[in-house]
Amino acid sequence: MLSRFPLIDGHNDLPWELRERFGSDPVAAALTGRVNGTHTDIPRLVEGGVGGQFWSVFVPGRLTGEAAAVAVLEQIDLVHRMIAAYPKRFQLALTADEVDAAFAAGRIASLLGAEGGRCIDNSLGVLRALYALGVRYMTLTHNENVGWADSATDEPDCGGLSDFGRQVVAEMQRLGMLVDLSHVAPSTMRAALDAAGAPVIFSHSSARAVCDNPRNVPDDVLARLAANGGVCMVTFVPFFVSQEATDWFNGLRAFAESRGKDKKNLSDVFGLLPEWEPSHPRPEATIHQVADHIDHVREVAGLAHVGIGGDFDGTPSTPLGLHDVSRYPALFAELQRRRWSEADLKCLAGANVLRALRGAEEFAAGHAGCAPR
Question: Which of these is catalytic: 9, 17, 180, 311?
Answer without folding.
Answer: 311
